[in-house]
Amino acid sequence: MDHSLQTSYERQRVSTTNQSLDGDPHLSEKAVAHHLEKIGDENPPLEKTVLYLAYGSNLYSETFLGRRGIKPLSRINVVVPDLQLTFDIPGVPYTEPCFAATKFRNPAGGKDNADKVEDSGWNGQAASECSRLIPGETSGYTSNIPLVGVVYEVTLADYAWIIATEGGGRGYKDRVVDCYPFPESYNSADPIPERPNTNPFKAHTLLSPFEESSTGTSITTSIPCFSPPVRLNAQPSVRYLNLIEMGAAEHDLPIAYRTHLSMIQPYKITSLRQRIGKVVFLGFWGPSLLLVLRLSRSLAGTDGRSPGWLMSFGDFVFSGMWQSYDKIFSRIFSDGERTVDHDST
């Protein structure tokens, strides 16, 4: 995709109109419930495209355009004051403990610190969910900063494929949020504006299924999620966190935000027990997970959605995997979600 192709002001304006798909709170459900046109359909009317806010590994072009085959029509960097980044979507213990999501943000503090976010953090702000991923020795740093991401304009079919590859609508809640473009004069070395002096527009994004509260007037819809309990203390893998960091650099997101990402502590195996646990865990659960992935790809419809029975089977496997970790593997082989001090046992 040509990174010079910025989402036009007219397309942003259309997102706030009644005929736009961007304001439909049930769009994700409709997208995965119907067989849609071929992915990559070109030149649809503005009101028939979808604005999708990416913040995780989809920031990185090799993931979004390459592995997932999405063909964005345009893109634009944005700030989302109502949301913040979290890592509470369960993955696979010892390998990919968790994945990125978003939650509603509660900006603390008064007017004195509500204008911008500096490199060193937000002085006086209360620590947020994500701050538990920041090393404790980082003095004066808190992570209650607004979400920064990239809004892609995509076809409806591409949006359906995004939802399908993000758990087929089972792992997240689809949310319509207000996104603020950066001013034309903005430089990535500048502080992150709390709320840019630009006109906001609507875009769909994926919210953590474990988020229970809501703010503002945006419309949300809950999507059924899988069974494993919320993993509030899990840390992303080095591989996954690197994808997000490379995507942030690729799109020249604010340096302050990239600094925040670089300070997140990834999961690392530090003991022989954990190494053995990883091998045993993948040896036991790997074949079932691989079977689900292969069946999902081979049996998926043109909208990318797997048959209902296969989604139920996948939920069963995934739930059983995490229950076995909580009750057996974590007790025998130590922590598969968070980095721990070296264990010589």
UniProtKB/TrEMBL annotation:
<feature type="compositionally biased region" description="Polar residues">
    <location>
        <begin position="1"/>
        <end position="21"/>
    </location>
</feature>
<dbReference type="InterPro" id="IPR017939">
    <property type="entry name" value="G-Glutamylcylcotransferase"/>
</dbReference>
<feature type="binding site">
    <location>
        <position position="240"/>
    </location>
    <ligand>
        <name>substrate</name>
    </ligand>
</feature>
<feature type="binding site">
    <location>
        <begin position="52"/>
        <end position="57"/>
    </location>
    <ligand>
        <name>substrate</name>
    </ligand>
</feature>
<dbReference type="GO" id="GO:0003839">
    <property type="term" value="F:gamma-glutamylcyclotransferase activity"/>
</dbReference>
<protein>
    <recommendedName>
        <fullName>gamma-glutamylcyclotransferase</fullName>
        <ecNumber>4.3.2.9</ecNumber>
    </recommendedName>
</protein>
<feature type="region of interest" description="Disordered">
    <location>
        <begin position="1"/>
        <end position="25"/>
    </location>
</feature>
<keyword id="KW-0456">Lyase</keyword>
<feature type="active site" description="Proton acceptor">
    <location>
        <position position="166"/>
    </location>
</feature>
